[in-house]
Each structure stands twice: as C-alpha cells, then as structure tokens.
Amino acid sequence: MSYAGKLEEKHKAIALRKKGYSYSEILKQISISKDTISRWCRDVKLTKSQKLRLYKKKYSGGLKGCIIGAKKKQREREKLTLELREKGKKEIGKLSKRDKFIAGIAMYFAEGDKQDGDVAFSNSDPRAIKFMVDWLRNVCKIPSNKLKASLYLHDNLNEVKAKQFWSQLIKIPLNQFTKTYIVKNNPHRLRKVKHIYGVLKIRTGNVMIHRKIMGWISGVFK
User: Fold this and answer.
1) Which end of the chain is more exposed for a tag (fewer CB within 10 A), N or C?
2) Long-range contact list for 185-192, CB < 8 A, 24+ apart?
3) 3-class secondary-structure state, position 204
4) How far apart are the C-alpha atoms of 176 and 48, rounded to whole Å?
5) pTM strictly above 0.85
6) pLDDT (tens digit, 9 = 90+) per residue, 16-44?
7) CA distance 46 to 20
C-alpha cells in the first residue's frame, strides 16, 4: 500500500473513532491490523455517551457469548445423557422371569412395608407402581380383586384426576380405592418434582405372603 493510501486510511480510522466506533467496527471498514488502528486512534478522546455505547456493546456481546456457550453446553449434556440412557438400556437387555423376581424383592426391600402384617408398597413413580403391581399379581399370585389402593395427596391437587390416572395404569377399579390421605400443601416449600398424582400405596391383607417376601429379602440380602 502507498504512503498516500495508508495516510487516507489513518484519517478514516481516526474519523470513525471520533464518531465513537469500536476498533472491531473500524476493522470492518478498513483492512488493517487491530494493533495499527489502536496506535492511530490512541489519542482520540471519546465522549461519555460514546464510552457508554461501547461499554454496552461489549457487555451485550459478552453476555450473548455466555448465553451461546451455555446453550451449547446444555445441548452437549442432553446428548450425552441420551447416549448414556440408551447404552444403559442395551446393557440391561431383556429381563428374564428371575430377573424380575429379584428386582421386585429389591424394590420391596426399599419401599415396601416390613412390619409383620399387610403387604404394602408406596411410591410416586408410575413405573415403580406398575412394575410392583404386576410383580404382586404374577410372582406373589395375588388376585386383582384383593388389591387395595390409597392416595397420599396434597390439598391443592385434583383427587378425582389422580385416582383415575392410577386406576387406568394398574387396572384396579375405583371401588378398590380406600380413603385418600389429604395433606395441606406448603406454597413456600420448593420442590424439584411435583407429584401431580400424589403417592400411591398398593396393599393387600395377606400376612403369609408378607412373611414369604421377608424370607426372599433375607435370601437376597444375607
């Protein structure tokens, strides 16, 4: 580039800087290094409004970059989570009859009533309830008409809707639901997961089967 051409670009850069342009904005109009522009324009005094504009631009650009970076990380986490879940499902494969037998024992050990008496299992997760109702029917040979259900529900939730949900899920008629235990909701308590259908307890009054289940638990967790 000739001396005259370079001088012209210098004057243009200074003129743009006096208008409050950032170095990055000047670079878009003049093909020269940022260091050179910085050196040319270092004596240019910006007004308060110009400085405020550049600060806001820099801040918003940084904020935008943070948001883009955060969203990218979120997508990466979601992708990794999905991959790990799929890998986990493949590692489990198809459960055998004995696999389900042992899984039911472990779940009852974790969430079932241990005190000698009724067989009872409580949970808010529909998957856990469905699995254990099938387990009680198929493994423990408990007839459907011998199973009773009861709800633990906050007073701000819909009891009718909750009962219909569980009834359809586990194929137990509403007349086999006993009285719902209603609890006062605390609006100031924050919960990560809100159980809109409450906690369901599935129960049958068969002490002999309960003692057998306790024996299975002893056999697994010696």
Assistant:
1) C
2) 185/154, 185/155, 185/156, 185/157
3) strand
4) 76
5) no
6) 888 888 888 888 888 888 888 888 888 88
7) 6
